[in-house]
Amino acid sequence: MQAFMDQDFLLCSDTARRLYHEAAADCPILDYHCHINPREIYEDRRYDNLTQVWLGGDHYKWRLMRCAGVPERLITGDAGDFDKFAAWAGVLGKAVGNPLYHWSHLELRRFFGYDGVLNARTAEAVWRHVNATLQGEGFSVRGLIRRSNVKLICTTDDPVDNLTWHQKLAADTTFDTAVLPAWRPDKAMNIKKPAYPAYLAELSRVSGVPIRTWAELKAALKVRLAYFHDNRCRLSDHALRYAMYAPAAEEEVARIFADRLAGKPVSEADELRFKTAFMLFMAGEYRRMGWAMQLHYGCRRDNNAPMFDLLGPDTGYDCIDNHTPSAQLAALLGAMDAAGGLPKTVLYSLNPADDAAIDTVCGCFQSDEAVGRVQHGSAWWFNDHLQGMTNHLVSLGNLGYLAGFVGMLTDSRSFLSYPRHEYFRRILCRVLGQWVEEGQFPADMDTLTEIVRDISYRNAERYFAFPV
């Protein structure tokens, strides 16, 4: 029986062990999609205790605690920090099969040197050990980033953001990790949201463009795109329920936008027409500026209305949406390509049933512009566990070009999430090692080492070509 989380954790063959320890382990991290706060990096925030750094804002953990029947007071309520941590420890101790068990213990080992297990019996000792360590040198936010060998971070930023903290970080010569913005214009696209007019007013203010028409909305967005570009942004991200394709003439899109500003209701059909036009416009701008585009879809958000009213979005009440039509995805990408060129694009679906569909759609839009111009992004959110990552890698290997994959990201709000890259790399080496051990690929260690290092870091560096 293999010991729990030893140096060969998840590495089930000699080839896998050699690939991980000799090729993957020392690669730096390029975290091109996350939700951390750049202000906390600039101010080099320190944490008083593990609850602050581990449980604050982490809806993955909140969701699991609710599944275990923990009262909300001990999750997002007014309970003390130790009580919240103790409740989490009790749940984690029995979380067999859940990736949070692996992630949490990797974080305890890599950051705090704790090699035991966390459960209800050990909670108090772990609390004392980690909190004492957190007060030491090198455990501020910047210290945690340095310890993880992170070379670049892309945050998630709205077009109205002033990017002040990115500018301060860019001017700070004492911190070597690049922190770049990533453009997330969902609020400008979500025409049916009640707050849409108020958002347009804010966008108008920061852009200096009055927004009374569809043409003026595009003009305002162009102003902000230029501002983001000047602040080293080279990557966008869109959260879609699904990749829709409902084409409409410009006159029709202008009418839909005018109706919304006039306070008229927007039908579902008109919403899809507007969002399609919005995405086609954005893709053309990304192509013009040399940016890459990410599309995250397949999520049905905020399903528990009372808890949404209490806590707001991103608090653990989302689920997989199985309405992800590949025909519309292919049509949308095809229309982008026909309109002047498809930008480099990374596709993510929350529904694991979409793996094969995405891989075959990607194959329709490749070119010599980039290795894997259209990418199947890393197993995401409900899929970034052993089985989900394995399935993703196998599908990409079967139907696409795994060697060109841009690899892992944290998609996290926590500065302790970087061991997820280690978790991914171990799974990658496990899959490749199995293929070699079974005679499906030769034991060509030079080629395999190059593949592992490329997927772990170098592919993303080449693909995104960030200005650092």
Walk me through this protein's architecture:
There is one protein chain. It contains 20 helices and nine strands. The protein has 468 residues and is α/β, with parallel strands linked by helices. The protein has a four-stranded parallel sheet, covered by helices on one side. A three-stranded parallel sheet has the order 1-2-3. α13 packs across α14 and α18 packs across α19 (419-437). The longest helix has 22 residues, at 268-289. It is globular and about 65 Å long. The relative contact order is 0.14.
Sheet of most strands: 4 strands, parallel
Query: What general outline do the C-alpha atoms trace?
Result: globular
Oligomer: single chain
Classify the helix fraction into a percent range.
40-55%
Our estimate of the beta-strand percent is: 5-15%
What is the count of β-strands? 9
- The helix tally amounts to 20
Topology as H/E string?
HEHHHHHHHEHEHHHEHHEEHEHEHEHHH
Overall pLDDT metric? 97
Low-confidence stretches: none
